[in-house]
Amino acid sequence: ALTCGIVGLPNVGKSTLFNAITQAGIAAENYPFCTIEPNVGLVNVPDPRLQALAEIVKPQHVVPATMEFVDIAGLVAGAAQGEGLGNQFLAHIRETDAIALVTRCFADPNVVHVSGHVDPVADLEVVLTELILADLSTVEKAQARVARQAKGGHKDAVAELAAMTRLLPHLDEGKPAASLDLNREERDHLRSLCLLTMKPLMVIANVAEDALREGPWRAPLEAWAVARQASVVPVCAAIESDLAELEPEEQRAFLQDLGLEEPGLNRIIRAAYRLLGLQTYFTAGVKEVRAWTIPVGATAPQAAGVIHSDFERGFIRAQTIAYADFLRYKGEHGAKEAGKMRAEGKEYVVQDGDVLNFLFNV
Ligand code: GDP
Predict the structure, then answer these.
(1) What domain of life does the native source organism fall in (predicted)?
(2) One domain, residues 149 and 255
(3) Which of 78, 57, 55, 70 is nearest to 17 (CA)?
């Protein structure tokens, strides 16, 4: 499964958020077949469409999509030189598929700030610089190795070396790898390096309770993020932590008091899901209405393969109803009558929200 790493300086609220996410999420004991490390949280992806489908189909079970967050502690300035948890920390980030940078926007005299004062953009710069330095060292090492292969006349190595030679000065200027306009081939050549700053990035702004929508944090942080193709999700970790402790009823009342529609965690989870390039299709039977996760761009057989590899191998076609049609015509029967059920073949690229039913050979 694809994972989103939660990264940031100490004392910015990472663990508080991560704990809220996992508390609100799924207990690992419900998933006996996957080893979940203590710092890995499996969470349900909140999706109001599931409820809407369930009201029509009235299934016995409703199963949401899930995704994984990893709490990656230990980043301090100098990590790329081995400070703090250094390399170990960087290795953990390398294994993730996207990065959520948590930055502290709340002032609290009781919570020590590592650099003495609250400056979310400066903190993000410290973190990003460490990631860039780590990439710089990765590329330098690889370059030396690949240069030897290139001398030996290895064709791929020559192209790889060229891509690295373009990337190095870019990193050296303090810019993330993702912002270099690499073509597809260059990207492929660099993929095996698992560069940290090539991963998609989002910013979680941990703001004060009274500054959820507006505050001095907003303008500079958004400018920083936009320049790095990242989105900003503001959240108050303290509130999320309180919310996660409550029963659904109490939670609704608390949210209403705060003038919020839903926990901020929902926005974080959805943003991370998008960041990972994931989307959802549904199956809607009387036994179970279920959300399934696929990469954006997946074809119908690939989508079927998420349920079972046999479905992919023996794929014949996918009976397909767009989510909006399923709703408008109140279910499969109505949609079919209205001519809104399509038979899609092997080439069909599944759309977000499609309600699918697979026909396959066993
Ligand atoms: P981490 O080191 O980034 O994992 O940070 P923690 O989640 O352990 O938080 C560090 C301290 O900041 C703890 O004492 C938290 O209770 C506190 N904290 C976290 N989020 C908030 C917040 O939104 N508001 C306030 N006032 N304190 C917070």
Answers:
(1) Bacteria
(2) no
(3) 70
